[in-house]
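User: Can you predict the 3D structure for this chain?
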Amino acid sequence: MAAFEYVALDGKGRQKKGIVEGDTPKQIRQNLREKGLVPLEVEAVTEKHRKQQSRKPLFASPGMSPADLSLVTRQLSTLINAAIPVEETLKAVADQCEKAKQKTVMMGVRSRVVEGHTMADALREYPRVFDGLYCSMVAAGEKSGHLDEVLDRLADYTESREEMRSKIFSALAYPMILAVVSLGIIIFLLSYVVPKIVNSYRDMGGELPGLTQALISTSDFVINYGVYIGIALSLVIAGIKWLLRNPKRLKSWHRKVLKLPLFGRVSRNVNAARFSRTLSILNSSSVPLLDALKISGDVMTNLELKEAVHEATFKVREGSSLKAALMSTGQFPPMMLHMIGSGEASGELDRMLEKAAANQERQFEHFINTLTSLIGPVMILIMGGFVLTIVLAILLPIFQMNQLLAG
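Assistant: Here is the predicted structure, written as structure tokens:
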């Protein structure tokens, strides 16, 4: 029995969409007619998904947010722990989904499971929703018989990753809003306020102070060329993004980022934390170390560090210890390597990897907190300096006229 998406018309000519289960499209159409609906389109969920995958749209929707994915994973873990069969669990979770895309995904997964595929293989049909880490852990859970524990751990991991992303966004939201507002105020003053005041000065005659003349030139430049500058900046950003679509250029850029004085260290720490936490979860879920290293490397965003992990994987395959393999790349923080070595020696690699990840994340949070605490006052000072300059440029001619009248 497979899942089918349908589009049909009711007796009043209104279009209805939904997902039902059946053996063939013909059977689904017959069932819809018996309910008084006129079927317009009936297509298997898995078949429709394959067509969408083959098109590869430029802006593809992920289908499930991290919060939704965490909730679905937690529900799967709870129901499987209650000894409910996997296909019934997937059906129950699909019925709980309020969003159509989520329900489609879960029903598609259930269809594949009913056909005889493993849950991990069914999840791999939806790579934009379930990544390699998720599918590998589910496969390990199915083999070991501890699928509920693995899913519970996956839910924790998804929640912690989303929490980190939320912290970054919350920390940077205030400086970004402040920067946009400051830039908007300055552009408004230069484009609308300054020209009106300056025109009245020009009508009075007399020589304007140098600061006022500079402000007038800046205002004229913004008015005459501001739109072109905005377009040029947009084209430059789009060009840079297009250039970085090339893997070689992107890798070269990532290499340069790692060499930056401060941001290079931050990038290395964030990627190291992601690598450590992923490897810890996979290793504790009975995923073979070589497979776990490959998946952990793939979740890293920096291509230079990703290649370093792949190099380390080859050395581990040849018999090297994990610490020695990672140390030979020269790309990972010493504290992390020390913890990994300690974990290998004591047989507690999972726990030490978890500690290493927590240590790297604490350093990143400390950097973000320090940066945001500095950006706010700095932005206020910069904005205040611009506004003060504009006010002085406007007031200086008034002071000159007062002195002339007094004289």
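The two ends are 99 Å apart (CA to CA). The first strand starts at residue 2 and ends at 9.
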